[in-house]
Amino acid sequence: MNRTRALGALLVAVVAVSGLAVAASHPGLLKRIRAHLAAAGQPTAAPASVSFGDLTDVVVTVDGGAPGTPISPLIYGVAGASAAELEALGAASNRWGGNPASTYNWVNGHAWNAARDWEFRNANYGPPSGSAADAFVTSTLGAAATPVLTIPTIGYVARNDDNDTRSLGVPAQGGPALAPGSQAIKGYDPSGNQLRIAVPSLPRKPGPFVDEPPANSSPVYQDEWVHHLVSRYGPNAVRFFEMDNEPDLWPYTHTDIHPVEPTYADLLANFETYAAAVKVADPSAQVMGPVLSGWTGYMYSPADAGTDTYATHADRTAHGGEAFLPWWLAQVAAHDRATGVRSLDYLDVHYYPQGQGVYSPAADQATRELRIRSTRSLWDPTYKDESWIDDSVDLIPRLKGWINANYPGTKLAISEYHWGGEKDASGAVAEAIVLGTFGRYGVDMASFWTVPPVMSPTGAAFRLYRNYDGRGAAFGDLSLPVRVNQAGVSAFAARHSQGGEADVVIVNQSVDQSASVRVALAGSTAGHADEYSVTGGSAEIVHTSISLASAVQLAPMSIALLRVAA
C-alpha cells in the first residue's frame, strides 16, 4: 500500500514518465556541509549587490568565419522526464538517477528504497507491476532522446515495494569501519537492515544470463541487467551507464545499508569492479563515473571527514595530499592500461551552486544577482565563489585539466546541475548562460535536475536552445568565438554544420537595466535576422523579424536568440 510520501532531510521530486512516477531525490547535503565547514572556520559569504556599466550601446562581435568547435547535443539533458516533456523541451537525453536509483531492483522492476529521503522505507515510484526501467527507456527512445541509466553498485537493492518494509535504528550518519573490510561502524551493524529491506546486488553473474529472472531473485546481478537491456532494445540503444549515484554521500543518504565512510581505495575498487562487469556484458557501453555529489567529493573521500570535519583529512594525507578526483582518474587510467580495456568513458560529477539562496525559489534582488553571477564559477578562474567554498571553482577548466593530466581522452559529464529560480527570470538567465557555457567550453554531457517546467521561464530558456519555434529548431552545433564590449551582457554563438546558418544568443544579466545590443556577425552579408525572445519572467518565446542594422532591445533579465541565414 502506498501511503502519503513524507520527506526526510532531503528534497524528493516525483516526476511523471509516461504515466509512471519516478522518484528523483535531490542529493544535496548543502546545509549540512556548509554548517560543518562554517564550524571549522570557513566563511560563508553573503550576497552582495552588483552594478553594471551603461548597457545602452553594447556590441556583440561574432567571428562567423571561424571553423567553430563541436557542441555535443547531449549537454541538453534532463532527468526523469516524460515523452511529452522531452519533445516540448527538445531535450537530447533523459537520465534515470537520484538517490533511490542506488537501490533499484531491476528484477522486481518497481522496487526502490527511499533511503534517508523518506525514513529508509521501500517504495514503488513506478507502475504497480512490470519494469519501470523498461518503461522509462521505451518512453525516452520514443521521444528520440538518449536514455542514461544508473547501475546500482552499493551492494544491496530493495527487496520489495512495500512501504511498511523499512530500516530500523539507523544512526544519524555513518562513520569509519570498525575494522578493515567491516561493514559495521561504532554502535551500528547494518546486517539486520540489509536483510530486512534488501537483497544482495552483485556486479557479475557466475552462470548464464536470464532475460527476465524471477521477481524474487536473490542476489540480483547488474551485468545481467545490461544484458537484458541489450537483448530487449538492441545494441547501442541504451549506451550510457552511470556507476551508481553519489557514492561519496552513501554514509549519510544510505546509512542503513552502507554506514561505512568509503576511502580513496574503496571508491576506486567499487568503480573498477562494476565498470568492468558492464563492459564485459556490453563492450560498446559508455561508462560514467564516479558520479560525485559536488565540491567536497572532488577534493576528499568520505573517510576524510574524520572527527574534525576534514581538517586533518587523513585519507588524503595518506595519498600525498592529492585531491581525490585527479588521484582517482590516474588510478583508473593505470588500471585500464594494465587490462587493455577502457573502463571509464565519461568523468561524471554533479554541481550545484553553493551561494546563499541560489539553489532555491528565492527571487529577491540580491539572490537574483548572485544566482546570475555565480554562473561564473563554471569557467572564470578569477571568480571567487561567494559561498562556504570561498575559492576559485573554475569548474570546467579544472575538470578538463585533471582529465588531460591523468586520463586523456576521457569525456566530461555534469550529470546533475540546477541554478534555482525555475519560475523566476533570474533562473532563466542562469540557465541560458549555463547551456551556452557548456557548449562553449566543450562539456560532453549534462543533465538538468530534474526537468524545467516546460511553461516556466527556465523552461523557455532551455527551449530557446532546443525548440525555440515549437517545431524542433535548435541552436547551432559549432560554437563560434564571441566578444562582448560590456559586462552585464553574455553572448553565445554557433553555426549549423549542415546549412551554415548562424545563431546568436544574447542574455541581459542586469536585474534592473534594459540593454541595447548591436550584433556584428563577421563574414555575413545578411541584413535581417529572425529574433526569438524571452522577456524577463515570461515563459513565452516571441518571434519577430529584425534588421541587423538595428540594435536588439532587451528588458532586464531577458534573452534573445537571433537566427541569421547563411
Give me a quick take on this structure.
The protein is built from 14 helices and 26 strands. It is of the alpha/beta class and 566 residues long.
Describe the structure.
This protein has 566 residues and is α/β, with parallel strands linked by helices. It contains 14 helices and 26 strands. The protein has helices at 30-39, 83-89, 132-142, 191-197, 222-233, 250-253, 264-281, 295-299, 314-318, 324-339, 365-373, 395-406, 425-440, 457-466, and strands spanning 12-17, 20-25, 58-63, 69-70, 77-79, 93-96, 112-113, 122-123, 146-151, 156-158, 198-202, 220-221, 240-243, 286-292, 346-351, 411-417, 445-448, 478-480, 482-484, 489-495, 502-508, 515-522, 528-534, 542-547, 552-554, 559-564. The strands form six sheets. The protein has an eight-stranded parallel β-sheet. Strand 20 and strand 21 form a beta hairpin. Helix 5 packs parallel to helix 7 (264-281), helix 7 (264-281) crosses helix 10 (324-339) and helix 11 packs parallel to helix 13. The radius of gyration is 24 Å and the shape is globular. The N and C termini lie far apart (59 Å). The model is unreliable at 1-47 (pLDDT under 50).
- Coarse shape: globular
How many DSSP-defined strands?
A: 26
Helix content: 25-40%
**Poorly predicted regions:** 1-47
Report the end-to-end length measured between terminal Cα atoms: 59 Å
Give me the side-by-side strand order of the main sheet.
Answer: 5-6-9-13-14-15-16-17
Report the portion of residues in β strands: 15-25%
Largest sheet: 8 strands, parallel
Which structural class fits the helix and strand makeup? alpha/beta
CA radius of gyration? 24 Å
Continuous helix count: 14
Overall average residue pLDDT? 91
